[in-house]
Amino acid sequence: xxxxxxxxxxxxxxIIPARGNSKGLSGKNIRLLAGKPLIAYTIEAALKASGxxxxxxxxxxxxxxAVAQEFGAEVPFLRPKHLATDTATVxxxxxxxxxxxxxxxxxKELAIVTLYPTSPFRSVRMIEDMxxxxxxxxxxxxTIHPVVASKWGIGEISGDGALHFPLAEDHMFTExxxxxxRPIGLISVEKRENPKGIYIRTVxxxxxxxxxxxxxxxxxxxxxxxxxxxxxxx
Length: 234
Fold this sequence. Notes:
alpha/beta, Spore Coat Polysaccharide Biosynthesis Protein SpsA, Chain A, two-stranded antiparallel sheet
């Protein structure tokens, strides 16, 4: 579809990047998680979220494309192999996909909601809130995980405000603790022409922070789903 053919008046679109190759866990994007492909959790949440007009998957894999379409996402074409190598970054793949669909001005016209399929535990309400922030004028809305850097290492701030040091290494930093954060791939929304700056959504929920890379992550996610420990509609 060329941009001149677009008649739906789209304001925000979700794009889910999903490479076919995976070093940590082979085929993880379509591996069955509690009876459903991993990528399906992200597709379904995006489709439920009000404010998002269309949901695309960008992939180099025909198998992933078929599964994505089965669960309601659009996959109008496969991305080139050079945009799906181990060293390729996600930005050019997203840019390639949306330019082909909407034309060169897509980043001025649309709010782009990027959702990684390896972070399945995001609520529909969170997607809606962050999309709305950008539609209301923010340039970007991002999810971050708060941490503290000190001589004891990198400490995580939990939901109750307590500080823990799961990655402690002596003498990594100076005596004075420094509050900082790390971005996470849960949700990122962007419309470059907007004037308001960046809206930050802090995420401390341990379940939402799960990023599935290895089999142990997959097993943990299966346990959460089996025991209904996460509310996707919250």
